[in-house]
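Forum > Structural Biology > Help requests

Title: Can anyone predict the 3D structure of LLM class flavin-dependent oxidoreductase?

Hi all, first post here. I have the sequence for LLM class flavin-dependent oxidoreductase but no way to get a structure on my laptop. I'd be grateful if someone could post the structure tokens.
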Amino acid sequence: MATKQLKDLKYSVLDLATVVQGQTPADSFKHSLDLAQHAEQWGYNRYWFAEHHNMFNVASSATSVLIGYIAQGTKTIRVGSGGIMLPNHSPLVVAEQFGTLASLYPGRIDLGLGRAPGTDQITAMAIRGENFNAAHNFPRDVEKLQNFFSADNVNSKVRAIPGEGLDIPIWILGSSPDSARLAAAMGLPYAFASHFAPAHFMTAIKLYRDNFVPSEYLKEPYVLACVNVVAADTDKEAIRLATSVQQFFIGVVTGKRQLLPPPIDTMDGVWNYFEQEAAEQMLAYSFFGSPETIKADLQSFLDQTGVDEVMATSHIFNHAARLHSYELFAEILK
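Reply #1:
Sure, ran it for you. Structure tokens for LLM class flavin-dependent oxidoreductase below:
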């Protein structure tokens, strides 16, 4: 693998429309649009939303609606899903929704697909009903989507209008080797959820590259890694700001979720040993620090992984500080 430099990396944004303490989802959406408009100016490649349900601290449940909102308020940045949880939806409806988006914003829409429910099992049952085991159909449903987008589907009895004949890049999202095998076999780009599921990252991307089959969509394997980023002018300030995401992940670990809390001076006494171990394991691929610190750490990460694109997600309490973090991160990669 040829050594890559940071300037070779494409860089993008993953947004969960996280709801901050004292605010509402409406505030989150306004902040998302403001961030996307700035990200476009700073050279970010794409802006994705993740589908989650029944989480009062994450407001990105109607993912395709938010994609339209961001695409309407921007001009050039690609906008898409990271991802649509395909077993929650009919492939035809997804094809129609993303066909509509791609018709409104041509050449700018990405469709990232995952097989997880993006929620708990009870909520998954409420979403899927009789199709509760739809995750088993994921490979076949991806093929159905490709067929709906194909111009060759013109004589079929079931057609996606709009959607048919449109160039809408499909990505396979994953957090395990299973998704890597599928992305490789289908010759599709692969986006890994290393921002919260780092354990299988190295195994999965090696499996993907070793087994990649070139396709009409992609000639060479393409790996996108999602990572947590909190950048600030000093290491001390970044570490303080990062206590918000650390507190947020205690809620993920314990099941006692909370709105994104303000930063605190120290995590000592806030988490116990087991909570700290679990949260830090999930946050293994995190870059917290000054531009100098992040630059060194990110180059080391790139040397180890050889990824083609890095997607930053930043749970930062203060919107101005979040904007500043993304601006600093862009400067590191330019």
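The beta strands are 10-15, 46-49, 78-85, 109-114, 170-174, 190-192, 223-231, 286-289, 309-313. The mean pLDDT is 94.
Shout if anything looks off.
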